[in-house]
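ligand=MIG
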Amino acid sequence: MLEDTSFAIHPGQKKQVKNRNFNDIGKVIKFEQTANGATVQTESGDLKIVFYRADIVRFVLNPFGDTTLASSPALIAEPESVDFLAEDADEDILLQSAKLTVQIKKNPVRLTVSDQDGNVLIREAAKGMGYNHSNEVICFKEMDVADHFYGFGEKTGFLDKRGEKMTMWNTDVYAPHNPETDPLYQSIPYFMTLRNGSAHGLFFDNTFKTTFDFKTEKDGYSFGAEGGQIDYYVMSGPEPKDVLEQYTALTGRIPIPPKWAIGYHQSRYSYESEQEVRELANTFLEKGIPLDVIYLDIHYMNEYRVFTFDRARFPKPAQLVSDLKEKGIRVIPIVDPGVKEDPEYKIYQEGVQGGHFCKYIEGKIYLGDVWPGNSAFPDFTSSRVRKWWGEKHEFYTNLGIEGIWNDMNEPAVFNETKTMDLKVIHENEGDPKTHRELHNLYGLMMGKATYTGMKNQLEGLRPFLLTRAGFAGVQRYAAVWTGDNRSFWEHLQLSLPMVMNLGLSGIPFAGPDVGGFAHDSNGELLTRWTQVGAFTPYFRNHSAIGFARQEPWSFGEKYEKIIKKYIEIRYQWLPHLYSLFAEAHRSGTPVMRPLMFEYPHDANTYQLSDQFMVGDNVIVAPIMQPGIEHRAVYLPEGQWIDYWTGEEWAGEQHHLIKAELDVLPVFIKKGSLVVQGELKQTTEMKDEKLTVHLYYGDCTDYSFKLYQDDGISFDYENGKCLTKEMNVICQDGKVDLTITDRGKFQPDWKTVELVIHGVCDNISVSVNGIVKSAIKKNEQMFTFQL
Ligand code: MIG
């Protein structure tokens, strides 16, 4: 029949292949200086160049229409006023701030960005910016032989992403994560380049599906998007720390977490009844295993309806929450975005009546299949919807709940594409856009709604939010766990570079499910994983329904004992870790760092994926294979002390280290210090005494900023916090400790004990210039008041 109609000559029958080739943007037509940079008219639209600071410059070009300076919600910064020189010559245009020089060759347009010393950071050569008729955009850059690439958010594989091609498209991946699994739940279109010891950053602010390609070409890389503008920021570095400071100036930093959120967390899919939760808490208390949080996974709800409890299994949630809180344990329930399609369910009614759900352009609400069956999805791109959703959390906060766990917020839907129909329209504050364009923002905006709502309700207490999906800037609202890993040794291994790269992507509060989520864990794996977890920023044991239980005692006494020991160590290290979180809050510096972050000139660190640093002076080198008690450890410049034995190891060398099952290899840099508190059951217990462990060794300036505040409120924003900057000089038989206090806060502790490790001769110790004591051989410890 169809043959008789015009369909017979339908053009699609010849299966035309789309021409995806990119057109170059062409040459410069006109140059115009602006308050913060320039507008350069090209053959393919206006290229706007904006200095945000002397060390941050933005490039925007829309090849399909008017170039706009509007940004995605990742951005929190506005351009500062920046002094710069502009020069319009025959062949090129030069824009120069105190830190950056932008050169624009005119025909064709080719950009070069250099630092103040003339070192090239990024350069376009044969190819520059391009676009095609499928509305895709792309930027090609030269790649130096010495370049190493880090960041990109949540990726599998090793630390350095040179040679990889990665996509940003928030995706629920239950299938086992392996080195070619990409994308995962988070989209952070940002990376840091390290070249010969200097670093610079690049943030591509585009919410569409983006691709970063360091693989296809030998001497060039590219980043591109399925739509939208070319819109990226170059950050000058030159230290990795500077890049993080610059990137987080644009996208924000973590609030200081409530102290309880950096304790040990226990989860399971699912603890299914009040009784089970109480028994769990009691077991921790009886066994004296420290614990701060228990999670409620989807079984707490009435048929997976968010903002409800199943009253048969959880008859008295308020009582449960308050009884546990008395014991210093908080309860965190899961909240998914999918709202069950049920005309008798209040949230669904409100959502429909208020116009809060995502809709097709024709007006029909989008429904997708998730846990509760057919469900509608709040449109978090609208501030009105965010307010509504945030306010709904009174349901939890009125019960005394201070933390929420957001899952499935890619959003995940049980269908072929794994997500919402791309045609769905988001309100987006009066600028409606398709899900195809805003998909990657869903988790971020849900996080914003949840965090803001809770913060309003908690009357000055810090909320805690855990999220699976996110976009650049998600650190402002939530900690990130790395989704559905498995109880494989390989997944313990891959969690290290993954969390380190999250840290380099502005997300310092992250961690994997300790012990592994799916698959059956075992005693040895859980033990080794808990040892690592004790030193990773986010520390939660979580496992899936239908697999072996993995609470600390699940595999027998031998393992339980070691697991307990390491959870205790976490609590002892809390003053130190909390100080590092405060540093992340101040400057974006990650808590858990790759060695290249501190030793960017040491090529041995560039791909080092099985060791990490906690702060700037502690190296953790875990065993991550079964039946193994030895491993190679690389120690960079300096002298390093084995945390357990006091043995000294030389830097800039590899060593073979022995570590039986109860040993996590930890090394402290000589001449530096670590601050510890007391053993405790929960973070609710205060430290009466602090211990400063100083590792004696030649050092002319080491400094650590010990931070304390009340751990629960936002008073720190008004100066109610204490920073004790401890400066150490160890030389010629002398230890000089200088302590400078900043801020007004009466700390918990009454005494501070100084323990000096590695003293082998008479030395004299002074604190703030006053000689405290002369230490003779083997007298290594003394106590005083700080
Ligand atoms: O499709 O809520 O990643 O942590 O336990 C599974 C049940 C949905 C996925 C999360 C996991 C959680 C589980 N969720």
